[in-house]
Amino acid sequence: MKQTSFASAEFAGKKRQTRREKFLADMETVVPWARLEALIEPHYPKSGKVGRPPVGLSKMLRMYFLQQWYTLADEALEDALYDSQAMREFAGIDLSQQDVPDATTLLKFRRLLEEHELGAAILAEVNAHLTERGLLMRQGTVVDATIIAAPSSTKNSKGERDPEMHQTKKGNEWHFGMKMHTGVDADSGLVHSVVCTAANESDVAHAHELLHGQETTVGADSGYTGLHKREEITQAQREDKLRKDIKWNIAMKPGTVRGMAEGPVKALTQICERIKARVRARVEHPYHVIKNLFGYRKVSYRGLAKNAARAKVHAALANLYIARRRLAPVSVGASAA
Questions:
Q1: What is the DSSP letter of 50?
Q2: Domain tally, the chain
Q3: What whole-number percentage of the chain has pLDDT above 90?
């Protein structure tokens, strides 16, 4: 039986539970740890006769998720684990028996996930878990994209910005970074597909990559006008990768609606557009969780591949957060990370 340290006993005996503790307790309950560890285990280094034994996979996966939830660099996470008893309890680290794994160990774990494309596999595994629980319906998809900023400064060792990122104009403002395209289940608001590109890539050009093929309806804003006529879509329908009877609920351009003559037709059109907008709004909830609660507003690495892997893990964790009350209706009550 594991002996409880004085620090852990004192921490457990305090009367007030912090928001961080509540959030981590909820995530401990809803994350399918066994499934995710089984997914990563074949690629994880085994203990050998020579050298220091690897840190346990369960501990490393929890540390990695802490890094995503709190948007911490490797060194910052190491410091945070020394500072926060709640984080150490979640990760299973007892300072009376072991030190916190250093930043290099976390770096190697993250590179292992990237090398074997396990970010996408984590999203797929989480979605399989949610589907089995009846939370991912797959009858309709809403597509959208959001910009994740990248450092635009050239004050670095190479004197240049990330060549895989790009600038684009949105409204009257210029943005530099990458674009995170997502396909979201129209019923539950859970993300099922993620594609990352440079920020200047057109939203509509990547919409076909966000459709899983089972949907009967597709919703999108006016930036996706003409989606159903694109060659990628019609080709997929000819090859039976997409249904031919999809109902395309694409928003009309606001200027087109405003330019209509006043009368019953315009009034009916406005009602239809409001109905479309209510369904389409579900795509914004995962973005709120990822960018506002988890703090993923700016990329942390150079290159699209590393940031895409992180974006897919964020989508998986956002799905679990959104579905937390339906996964654990009794114990879950956190409202923010």
A1: S
A2: 2
A3: 67
Residue 324, in any domain of the structure: no
Distance CA 50, CA 46 (A): 11
Q: Are residues 156 and 277 in the same domain?
A: yes
pLDDT tens figures, 240-268: 999 999 999 999 888 888 888 899 998 99
**Local confidence band at 154 (pLDDT 50, 70, 90 cut-offs):** confident
Q: What is the mean pLDDT of residues 212-222?
A: 92
CB 101 within 8 A of CB 63: yes
In three-state secondary structure terms, 174 is strand
In a domain, 240, yes or no: yes
146 DSSP β-pair partners: 180
Contact 137, 189 (CB under 8 A): no
Helices (H), 156-263: 231-238, 254-258
Question: In whole angstroms, what is the distance from residue 127 CA to residue 135 CA?
Answer: 9
pLDDT at 335 over 90: no
Residue 10 — left, alpha, or beta (φ > 0 → left; ψ -120 to 50 → alpha)? Answer: alpha
Quick one: which of 296, 292, 86 has its CA closest to 194?
A: 296
Q: Is residue 295 part of a domain?
A: yes
Query: Which pTM does this prediction carry?
Result: 0.88
Q: Are residues 77 and 184 in the same domain?
A: no
Within 10 angstroms of residue 150's Cβ, the number of other Cβ atoms is 24
- CA–CA distance, 70 with 64 (Å, rounded to integer): 10
Contact 311, 172 (CB under 8 A): no
Distances (CA, A) of 227 to 82, 184, 202, 269: 51, 17, 12, 20
Any domain includes 154 = yes
What 3-state class would DSSP assign to 336? Answer: coil
- Residues 26 and 79 placed together within one structural domain of the fold: yes
Same domain, 110 and 208: no
Domain of 247 in residue numbering reads as: 138-308
Q: pLDDT digit string (tens) for 177-188?
A: 999 999 999 999
Pair 98, 244 in one domain:
no
